[in-house]
Specification:
The chain is built from ten helices and two strands. With about 240 residues, it is mainly alpha-helical. The protein has a single domain, classed as Glycerol uptake facilitator protein (Up-down Bundle). A two-stranded antiparallel sheet has the order 1-2. Helix 3 crosses helix 7. The longest helix is centred in the N-terminal third of the chain and has 25 residues.
Length: about 240
């Protein structure tokens, strides 16, 4: 249960800071409005870092259902814990999105005439709507994410300090932070690089139920792509990892 609690807290903080940078950069009268894509990708990277620093020592800080699934498929995480982790991550993502809305409520009100902008602070939508291309983009980006996370735990990336084995992924969150920033800057332009159902579906649900002035529909016709794409990408990453390593 403690692991589930920390997955919830870590994912909540991830979304609070990640969706928070989207809100800060997009909503009217925000001092950060117009900060741009570089700030958003840096903000998401640092959001991952802080979430990992909180949850890492207790739960391993997956903070993402497809990371949990990919690790289980690769045999490095017990299947018995998968469902609990995913539920905790989705609840954390929902709660984090609600907190962003509470924090920026006045700014959401001031942006009521821009429903697409409001939706974009909660979840992703494609720059160019092409379902199968968008799906492929999410598959590729998520496969890269999970494969690198798995690679960080291999012997080649491991070392020993005072007789305790560790990997570059466990000395801190810096490697994964850099990975998230790189994916965002290089592969995020097409779909907004959801690569995480707890980052996309959970806040999308929050957008659907919150009393936001001027909001549009929650983009449900697209919502399957940021879920199915990352799941397929995680499965491919696990298979590739087992094949290569």
């Amino acid at each position: 249960m403690q692991q589930y609690i920390f997955e919830f807290i870590g994912t909540l903080v991830l979304i609070l800071l990640g969706d928070g940078v989207c809100a800060a950069s997009s909503l009217n009268h925000s001092k950060a409005k117009g900060a741009g894509w570089v700030v958003i990708t840096l903000g998401w990277g640092f959001a991952v870092m802080i979430g990992v620093l909180i949850a890492g020592p207790v739960s391993g800080a997956h903070l993402n259902p497809v990371v949990t699934l990919g690790l289980a498929l690769a045999g490095t995480f017990p299947w018995a814990s998968v469902a609990g982790y995913i539920v905790a991550q989705m609840l954390g993502g929902f709660a984090g999105a609600v907190l962003v809305w509470v924090f920026y409520k006045d700014h959401y009100k001031a942006t009521a005439d821009q429903p697409d902008t409001i939706l974009g602070t909660f979840c992703t939508m494609p720059a160019i709507a092409n379902n199968w291309r968008n799906f492929l983009c999410e598959v590729i980006a998520s496969c890269l994410l999970v494969f690198v996370i798995l690679a960080l735990g291999t012997n080649g990336n491991a070392f020993s300090v005072a007789g305790v084995n560790a990997s570059t992924g466990s000395i801190g969150s810096l490697p994964v932070t850099c990975l998230i920033m790189s994916i965002g800057m290089s592969l995020g332009g097409a779909t907004g690089y959801a690569i995480n159902p707890a980052r996309d579906l959970a806040p999308r649900c929050a957008h659907a139920v919150l009393p936001i002035a001027g909001k549009r529909d929650s983009g449900w016709s697209y919502s399957w792509i940021p879920v199915a794409g990352p799941v397929v990408g995680a499965a491919l990453a696990a298979g590739l990892f087992l094949l290569v390593f």
